[in-house]
Design goal:
Layout lengths: L5 H14 L9 E8 L2 E5 L8 E5 L4 E7 L4 E5 L11 E8 L1 E4 L7 E2 L16 E4 L22 H6 L18 H10 L6 E5 L5 H17 L8 E3 L10 H18 L4 E5 L2 H9 L1 H6 L6 H9 L1 H6 L11 H21 L1
Parallel strand pairs: 8-11, 10-11, 10-12
Antiparallel strand pairs: 1-2, 1-6, 2-5, 3-4, 3-6, 4-5, 7-9
Helix pairs in contact: 3-4
């Protein structure tokens, strides 16, 4: 029978006691009282900050934007279909941030800066606060450096400087998207390009991505890496449209602070104006007659866009053609609805 050695047991116990680390913390936890239209109302989060990130039990995240005396309004960064009344919400103690990194070059991301191109996760090098102080007036200077687009007609007749905003307007089928795509692929100055497809028609989006992938990798090997974002998650899906704009801006600011020029392309200013003016109307429109079909098409648009293969004979699968047919049915029905 083995004998117990008291001195060894004493040493083991002392070592375990020295290594014991008891972490004590206070968590700010609330409860859901109402959820709908991308907004959740929470009670119990008395110490929450404006713009703070919160996490729901089922994994959805949100941003606290409306602080009232009895409840807090949370903008959901997701559909929120699994959030139930009475479920718990935990404040993270962190203000909403956007991840930025050089790894975003050449990637297709959604409104939350998550990759949707099937090429693996993106490891960000740093992050920036969404509500961060603007650059001071002293650090700014007037436009002094020209932007060479590589298009003779524009460079010779329309002077564009770095730091300016240009609006490309015109009737339908006049080459506005083709002009923007030419700027992305043209032999002009080396710039980081961000193409924000907020409100862009799905078929146009497929063509733009195909041009970037095909011509950019074959004809312009030195410009094959483009940063371009895809649309927000669509109407009726919370505050992801807001996040899309913030994400695009701070990804561009990342390059500016690293002394690299950048150009951001926005399509369809009509939708952007609507999104900036009254996002609640944009969400409520999903309850119209054909809103359910539109939401379904938005949910599945990324699979169709990423499945586009410009080099194959059968570029679009049968499912993709069904998607386009459904998109045509919705568009036709919408025209009859408003006519």
């Amino acid at each position: 029978m083995a004998t117990l050695r008291v001195d060894e047991i004493n040493k083991i116990l002392c070592k375990r006691i020295e290594q014991f680390n008891r972490k004590v913390g206070i968590e700010n936890i609330g409860r859901v009282v109402q959820v709908g239209d991308g907004i959740a109302h929470i009670i119990g989060l008395g110490e929450i900050m404006s713009g703070e990130l919160v996490k729901f039990v089922e994994g959805t995240r949100g941003i606290a934007l409306n602080l009232e005396s009895k409840n807090v309004g949370i903008v959901l960064m997701g559909d929120g279909l699994m959030i139930q009344e009475g479920s718990f919400v935990k404040a993270t103690g962190r203000i909403a941030q956007i991840s930025v990194s050089e790894a975003y070059l050449g990637r297709v991301i959604n409104a939350l800066a998550k990759p949707i191109d099937g090429r693996g996760e993106i490891v960000p090098s740093e992050s920036r606060l969404i509500e961060s102080p603007a650059l001071g007036i002293i650090s700014m200077r007037s436009v002094y450096e020209p932007l060479q687009t590589g298009l003779i007609a524009i460079d010779s007749m329309i002077p564009i400087g770095r730091g300016q905003r240009e609006l490309i307007i015109g009737d339908r089928q006049t080459g506005k998207t083709a002009l923007a795509t030419s700027l992305l692929l043209g032999p002009g100055d080396f710039l980081v390009h961000h193409a924000i497809a907020l409100g862009l028609h799905t078929t146009t989006l497929i063509l733009v991505k195909g041009a970037l992938d095909a011509r950019g990798s074959k004809l312009m090997p030195d410009k094959k890496d483009f940063g371009y974002s895809f649309p927000c998650d669509g109407p009726g899906h919370g505050g992801t449209c807001d996040i899309s704009a913030w994400d695009a801006f701070y990804l561009a600011v990342f390059w500016m602070l690293n002394t690299v020029g950048w150009v951001t392309f926005y399509w369809h200013w009509k939708h952007i104006t609507l999104w900036q003016g009254n996002i609640s109307q944009f969400n409520e429109s999903s309850t119209y007659l054909m809103g359910w079909l539109r939401d379904y098409l938005w949910l599945n648009s990324s699979q169709l866009i990423n499945g586009y293969n410009p080099f194959g004979m059968n570029s679009l699968s049968v499912w993709a053609w069904m998607f386009l047919f459904g998109h045509l049915v919705w568009a036709t029905g919408f025209m009859f609805l408003i006519s």
